[in-house]
Amino acid sequence: MSADTAGAAGADVRFDVPEPDAFTQPYWDAAAGGRLLLRHCGSCGRDHHYPREFCPFCWSEDGRWADASGRATLYTWSVVHRNDLPPFGGRTPYTAAVVDLAEGPRMMTEIVDCAEADLRMGMELTVDFREGGEGFAVPVFRPAV
Q: Alpha helix locations (H) across 11-133?
């Protein structure tokens, strides 16, 4: 493949499209419908995120999907001014963040509709969903009203 052909083929590549599998498909289906899901352990009663088939606390496989409240607080963030991976370059600057969900787990995400100067550790947030095309949506967070 020539450099020109490789560049043309890479023009359609996106790095913000999830790759659901049979296990994570319910998570992505819920997000497309405007719902945030967590995994809830039936053995120890704790919620966890990212979705996985076992509990990271007690190693039980007795997990189920559970609706999250959509509430969170800001734990940490970084404002990204340059990202060469498509389509992120067109979104700069953006705020990459880690939030503490009301249910306990921490989650990597993006903060939207908030000026950099207004970001504060512990600020109250609420979930929203960015439509990503191709039938998916990604959870992002915005300041709570």
A: 25-32
